[in-house]
Design brief:
- This protein is an alpha/beta fold and 320 residues long.
- The protein has two domains: 184 residues, Rossmann fold (3-Layer(aba) Sandwich); 71 residues, no CATH class.
- 32% of the residues lie in helices and 23% in strands.
- A hairpin with a 2-residue loop joins β5 and β6.
- α3 crosses α4.
- It is globular and about 65 Å long.
- The site of adenosine-5'-triphosphate has 14 residues, from β2 and α1.
Length: 320
């Protein structure tokens, strides 16, 4: 049974005079212990997908539908509030780009991690604090006792990100969702945090969903890549295959826009033309207005997401 099992997930946000269609029918399975990278231009629906899986989006305004939305066998669409809260800690946790959003400025780091542990497990404050200090040490924070007693504003961005990872790990999740966890950090700290996530993943046998703009991060941390565009998955496959032989025109454009590929310039470079407007998405294939290979059918009918080789799938008429 996959740990994450999503079929035909859609997320929309009704707005004055229209509907923002942020996610438009995503199907994705992630096995226990597997690491998957989600890449795509800004606004392609990466964060909304993760937040929808964890049911972290406020409803309303968000409208979520799916044929299946399961985390470790739990139906996240129909789960009660209590089940959702328990699942978020025990099965999956999320680390965000900005660690300040994860911590309340008026409580110490230690207090907040202790409260998270106590919310999920029947334990004493003293035991939870001992665990917190051990967790802070595990994410390689020096002087973990002192940091446990510090307030968020007293820590650097890198330290806070480590603190947030410690909090995310405090309930021993089976999978960690990391949404641009290093974008706000300088390059050296970025590398250290990525290394830490990789180490923890191997040590704990934990699954990972890594959302990033940075193809270098994907190459270094995940087994499989999901390429999103306009709220849809364009291509999915093992990381090496995607980098060596991208099949979808969008993936090809993304990779060819990186001079010398990696490790020099490795952030996604915008492809000529504009990303689709989710409030008024193009008909047919969402990439057709920018695709150099588009023909008449592409503008009318959306391509089916279909296998294109061993462990690979893509949504493009030219590949079917
Ligand atoms: N609460 C909301 N209300 C209305 N629209 C929203 C809301 N949250 C997200 N969206 C829209 O949904 C679309 C997908 O957003 P999402 O945050 O998932 O993009 P992303 O791929 O994570 O982009 P980025 O790389 O910039 O983080 C965007 O057009 C965004 O404006
Ligand atoms: S379906 Fe058509 S427009 Fe879309 S990526 Fe393939 S060739 Fe391009
Ligand atoms: Mg995002």
């Amino acid at each position: 049974m996959p740990l994450v099992d999503i079929q035909n997930l859609t997320v929309s946000f009704p707005q004055h005079g229209g509907v923002v269609q942020a996610v438009r029918g995503i199907t994705l399975q992630v096995a226990a212990g597997e690491s998957v990278g989600i890449v795509g231009e800004s606004g392609s629906g990466k964060s909304v997908t993760c937040m929808a899986i964890l049911r972290l989006l406020r409803q309303p305004p968000a409208r979520i539908t799916a044929d299946r939305l399961e985390l470790d066998g739990i139906d996240m669409l129909r789960a009660t509030r209590g089940q959702l809260a328990a699942t978020r800690g025990r099965v999956a946790s999320m680390v965000f780009q900005d660690p300040m959003t994860a911590f309340d400025p008026v409580f110490t780091i230690g207090h907040q991690i202790v409260e998270t542990i106590k919310a999920h497990r029947d334990t004493t404050t003293a035991a939870a604090m001992a665990e917190t200090v051990a967790l802070l040490a595990r994410v390689k924070i020096k002087a973990p006792e002192a940091i446990a007693n510090s307030y968020p504003h007293q820590l650097s961005g890198g330290m806070l990100q480590r603190g947030m990872i410690a909090m995310a790990l405090s309930c021993q999740p089976k999978i960690l969702f990391a949404d641009e966890p290093t974008t706000a950090l300088d390059v050296t700290i970025q590398a250290q945090i990525l290394e830490l996530i990789k180490e923890l993943q191997a040590e704990l046998g934990m699954g990972l969903i890594m959302v990033t703009h940075d193809l270098g991060v994907v190459a270094e941390t995940v087994d499989r890549v999901v390429v999103m565009y306009g709220g849809r998955v364009m291509e999915m496959g093992p990381v090496q295959d995607i980098f060596d032989a991208p099949q979808h025109p969008y993936t090809q454009a993304l990779l060819s826009s990186i001079p010398g590929r990696m490790p020099g310039k490795r952030r996604l470079v915008e492809i000529p033309g504009a990303s689709p407007n989710p409030a008024n998405p193009p008909s047919g294939c969402p990439f057709h207005p920018r695709c150099t290979l588009a023909d008449a059918k592409c503008g009318v009918e959306a391509p089916v997401f279909a296998p294109v080789g061993e462990g690979r799938a893509a949504a493009c008429w030219r590949l079917q």
